[in-house]
Amino acid sequence: MDVPRVGIADTDSLHRRGSPDTPSAQVPPRDIVSNAFGARSNRMKPLIIGIAGGTGSGKSTVARKVAEALPDASVAFLEMDAYYRDFRHLTLEQLHQVNWDHPDAFDVELLTYHLAQLSTGHRVEMPVYEFASHTRSARTRPIEPSDVVVIDGILLLSDPAIRELCDVKVFVDADADVRLIRRIRRDTAKRGRTLESVLEQYLTTVQPMHLLFVEPSKRYADVIVPRGGSNTVAIEMIVAKIQRRLSARDAHRVTVSPSAGGNAALAQSRTA
Fold it and tell me: When you count CB atoms within 10 A of the terminal residue's CB, does the N or C end of the chain come out lower?
């Protein structure tokens, strides 16, 4: 897709050239993904919590604290960063031109499919991405169906298909200087990057793409969390919302069932 650039070299042809490196049988067409909503399983549909926000805003901290506050529910985690496309076929010079903060850098089709599968009670194999080499590992991480599915990513709310799958949409906000410091610490410690390369990437793509895609997606959020993981009140509000949804779902499971046993439960609940 053509987007305006803010003093950035045009890298569209490069960040589109990553390959999902996934057998085509695992990624059905979008119409099949849409039909997955109508599929039935023995489990109730999980609550899918989408947590977006700028780089270093504290998305992972919020996700972890939400999970810790739900001891009676099973929680599965997905990371949008695991769904970067495989760029192993590019030269080192071409890799330096890839815009990693553009939506086209992500394998959104596979991510959407996995969320749809989890929503119908099926296990998925989340990719493992090697950030040092910009390649998708042959290893995968199994994600089991759970009561709650939490997924975080900077561009999570910018994609309509992903937004449609999320029951609760959260945007984690933080000051730009705080986010930059956190990004420097993460990329140098965990992704083998130099300080110079982190700063160059931040100025050429991270900050402009934040203004172009991430910040505007805030309007789709149900809850905005200022100050990230340190905002205890906002996290408690999110947890309370999830608990209400879980309680309503459990009540629906008791009173509504297509089986004869379900009809008996419904009759019993009405006479109680």
Answer: C
